Amino acid sequence: MATQQSKAHRVGEWASLRHTSPEIAEAIFEVAAYDEILAEKIWEQQGSDDVLLRAFEKTDKDVLTWDDKVVNRKNV
To answer: What is the 3-state secondary structure (H, E, C) of the chain?
Structure first.
């Protein structure tokens, strides 16, 4: 069973490889219950409202990125 620290590292690396904000990656994995195959499918859809709401709850930032695409808090 993965520890919280190892999960965070894996999610951070996953986010970096996909040019996606860590907050969005973390939200994707939460929605996918840490199933990497499901996380990849959610990431490919690019724009899940549930994911974006969760991601912006994790930060004060007004802009995040999803595959190098800018997502503004005001548009969620």
So the answer is: CCCHHHHHHHHHHHHHHCCCCHHHHHHHHHHCCCCHHHHHHHHHHCCCHHHHHHHHHCCCCCEEEECCEEEEHHHC
